[in-house]
Amino acid sequence: MKQLAATLILALAFVSAGRAAHAQAGKPVTITDANLVTEADLAKLPHMNAALAKAVLAKRPFKTVKDLDNALSSLTKEQRTELYARLFVPINLNTATDEQILLIPGVGNRMLREFKEYRPYTALAQFHREIGKYVDNTELARLEQYVFVPVTK
Predict the structure, then answer these.
(1) Cys-Cys link to 67, which of 34, 59, 62, 86 (CB 3.0-4.6 A)?
(2) Dihedral angle, C-alpha 128, 81, 101, 15, nearest 10 °
(3) pLDDT at 7 over 80
C-alpha cells in the first residue's frame, strides 16, 4: 500500500511538472477552471442548476472561454458575467482575442488595450510588472486567475 501511495505521489509530481513546463498560469483564488470543475460543484454556482450543469459538462473540454460562453448562451450576459467571477477557462495572454479578454469580469476596453500592448508575454512576471502599473495588487491577483503565459523552448 505504501508503494502504491508513493507511486501515485510520484506520478502526480511528474504531471504537475509537465504542466508547469508548458505554461505559467495564474493562481486560482476565487475561480475554477470550467474543464476541471465537478458536476456537483458546477451546479452550486450562480445561475446554474443540475440540468444546465449536465449540459455544460457534456460540451467539455472547452478549448476557449468563448466555447464556454456559447455553452452558457441560455443565460443572460449579466448572469454569465456573474458566473465568470467563479468559473472560467483561462486565456492565453499572447493569443486571446478581444472578445475572450472582454469576457473577464471587470475588464473593459482600456484594460483590453493594456493586456494587448505588452504582447508577447514571456512570463507571468511580465504581466505582473506591466499590468501592475494600472491596478493594485488585489486587482492584479484577481486578473491573474484568468490568464496563462505559454512557455516557449
Answers:
(1) 62
(2) 70
(3) no
